[in-house]
Design goal:
Layout: H1 4-14, H2 37-51, H3 75-86, H4 93-102, H5 105-112, E1 113-119, E2 125-132, E3 139-143, H6 146-160, H7 166-173, H8 182-191
Antiparallel strand pairs: 1-2, 2-3
Length: 192
């Protein structure tokens, strides 16, 4: 059953005055062409192997021993984190206090992430979740939902590196993405 916080979040998603929250977009293998059957099978195998059977409803804990554990969010958790951070500070202090009381996870989000707004060519703003860089307290690496990890790796491994091994793929990805790991790249390459 939905809580007040979830209902408020859902209502905000349909509010006509707010720009829509979109995940970072990635191109498919041929610009606007549908992905091939092979790419679809690869995506399904990757997501099942890395995130479990129902990756949209779980948080990943599928890391080998010794591998770094990073935050994995499904699409709804990702959108919720952006919603909370966008509404964390309000002009009306009573409304702000009430919002923070209803969304206490915002204290955690606020310490780890920040939002960067960008505009697409059609001038619709999109919001990216970025890890706060501890040294400079500025926006750092991009955080992406679990459903976009395959796309990020595929863009580098297939399109930029022409199917090189997992280590070169990870070396390029690690400077841009906070939650894409060497483990993800190894699984991707093994299934490729």
């Amino acid at each position: 059953t939905p809580t007040n916080s979830q209902e408020e979040y859902s209502a905000a998603q349909t509010d006509k005055n707010r720009p829509t929250i979109q995940s970072p977009t990635f191109q498919t293998s041929s610009n606007s062409v549908e992905p091939s059957e092979l790419e679809i099978k690869h995506r399904l195998s990757f997501n099942e192997t890395v995130f479990g059977f129902d990756y949209n409803n779980t948080t990943s804990d599928h890391f080998p021993k010794g591998e770094a554990r990073v935050t994995q969010m499904n699409d709804e958790q990702y959108k919720y984190a952006i919603f909370v951070l966008r509404n964390w500070s309000k002009q009306d202090k009573d409304a702000e206090k009430e919002f923070r009381k209803e969304h206490p996870v915002g204290y955690h989000y606020r310490s780890k992430y920040m939002i960067v707004e960008s505009h697409q060519p059609n001038d619709i703003p999109t919001f990216e979740l970025r890890k706060v860089d501890k040294d400079s307290n500025n926006a750092g690496k991009l955080v992406i939902p679990m459903g976009k990890v395959f796309d990020a790796i595929n863009d580098v491994h297939v399109k930029q590196l022409s199917h090189l091994k997992s280590s070169p793929t990870y070396q390029l990805l690690r400077y841009t993405y906070y939650n894409v790991t060497l483990h993800h790249c190894r699984v991707f390459v093994r299934l490729c």
